[in-house]
Design goal:
Blueprint (H helix, E strand, L loop, with lengths): L3 H19 L5 H6 L5 E8 L3 E2 L3 H11 L4 E4 L6 E2 L4 E8 H29 L8 E3 L9 H10 L13 E3 L1 H7 L2 H11 L6 E5 L2 H10 L3 E5 L3 H11 L4 E5 L8 H4 L5 E3 L2 H4 L6 E8 L2
Parallel strand pairs: 6-11, 7-8, 8-9, 9-10, 10-11
Antiparallel strand pairs: 1-5, 1-12, 2-4, 3-5
Helix pairs in contact: 1-3, 3-4, 4-5, 6-7, 7-8, 8-9
């Protein structure tokens, strides 16, 4: 995602929107103390252990404010950093550094927090065949950043949006009139290259999904005992994903079940931010 084409097409407009949210007319505080251009330097400092994600977004915030600004990093996305370590420096017009600081940190703290939380769960799955997936439970207009952070932390992306794949949930099933009907209608409508995934809440629904030829079956909010019965019935005839209030605290009970995927909305909607600061701003001669 950090190539120039992707950044220009998908990221720049979102960052500019965030900057406009923070600077509707002018940065009054900065303009009050900085009446003209003055070159300065600030340090990006980690204030807790974690996994970095979003360094290129942090840099891009300042570049969009001042094309001459220089942001240099000592680490890369995906690296683990420790409390107190210097991550990098920002050198350029102090006005741009001050005006962009909060927006740049908001992205970096949020993305690094997601990467750190994802990584802590992904480590629990090491040695198993299970892949950890995110969901569409993301902050509006920040999905591209949050899903990137999940991958950086060692997770995998489920479908990016509604155009990206077929996932028939409870209300789709209700609208179609049943599990078999929903799967059959999806197979008829969707391109043949698309897999059909369907959400099942009972073993009976799983039986219907298998008989209708679903490619992936999501076991949603089932007890461990129900999932064991469902998995035994599927018997390799479809891939299996389990979902429903999966967190770091309870994920271990799902690992030995033999599912292919575990999805967790908590990766994006409940990850705490990582504490990172831009400090020690001073003028350069």
């Amino acid at each position: 995602m950090n190539n120039n084409i992707t950044m220009t097409l998908n990221v720049d407009n979102l960052i500019l929107s965030a900057l406009r949210e923070d600077i509707s007319s002018e940065d009054v505080s900065t303009n009050a103390v900085m009446r003209g251009a003055q070159k300065g330097e600030a340090q990006l400092i980690c204030k807790q252990d974690g996994v970095l994600a979003g360094l290129f977004v942090f840099r891009r915030v300042f570049e969009l404010l001042d094309a001459d600004i220089e942001v240099k990093f000592l680490y890369e996305d995906g690296d683990t950093v420790k409390n107190g370590e210097i991550i990098g420096t920002v050198v350029g017009d102090i006005r741009a550094i001050l005006s962009g600081e909060r927006t740049a940190l908001n992205y970096l703290q949020r993305m690094s927090g997601i990467a750190t939380y994802t990584n802590s769960i992904a480590r629990l799955l090491e040695g198993s065949k299970v892949k950890l997936l995110d969901t569409r439970k993301t902050t509006p207009n920040n999905r591209i950043f949050e899903k990137y952070a999940v991958k950086t932390g060692g997770g995998y992306n489920h479908r990016y949006n509604l155009s990206d794949g077929v996932l028939l949930k409870d209300n789709h099933i209700g609208a179609a009139g049943g599990v078999k009907e929903a799967v059959e209608m999806a197979k008829e409508y969707a391109p043949f290259v698309r897999k059909i995934e369907i959400e099942c809440e009972t073993v009976e629904m799983v039986r219907d999904a298998v008989e209708a030829g679903a490619d992936i079956i999501m076991l949603d909010n089932m007890s461990v005992e129900e999932m064991q019965k469902a998995i035994a019935f599927v018997d390799g005839r479809a891939e299996i994903e389990c979902s429903g209030n999966v967190t770091k605290e309870n994920i271990e009970r799902y690992i030995s079940l033999g599912v292919d995927y575990i999805s967790s909305g908590a990766l994006t909607h409940s990850a705490p931010i990582m504490d990172i600061s831009l400090k020690n701003l001073h003028a350069l001669s």
